């Protein structure tokens, strides 16, 4: 995908806080189109790399909700530094012909819910467990406030099962979700989607294959 210099201006505005997100269509064109988030699902991730599991999850979630799907990549990370410009463009190139991408500066889902009011977020059970862990909020009360703010922004979560901690978990296996918050998290049935490999494992496999060919 050729990236014209004008795309840098969109990215500069995002980095400087002049915009909350950039829409990149499936042909790779940057724009600031206003989107009706109430008719959308958002699959957030680092996409390092984008793999068939992401694509299959997007298709299943689209079929379940009948909404317009978007991948979402944040230029910031909850635990890491801001992603470099070169790395951002590298990851965006993966999506050409595969779907629309939203590039944002939102690290946390409470921030995302302010930007994408009315959207459904598609996540894995491992991330769902973290979202419901009070340690990331400074206590139970702040966790409750954050989830209720996500609710007030008319957002909710569609949760795919994931293999972690030596077993497969669905949203129903996560004991740290308080009953009063369960309504925010809908399960994707295991018979519709199951993925036992992570992006980290795929990166390691790719590196091993590269070494084998050297």
UniProtKB/TrEMBL annotation:
Domain Cytidyltransferase-like per the UniProt entry, residue ranges: 43-203
Pfam families according to UniProt: CTP_transf_like
InterPro entries: Cyt_trans-like, Rossmann-like_a/b/a_fold
Protein name: Cytidyltransferase-like domain-containing protein
Species for this entry: Photorhabdus tasmaniensis
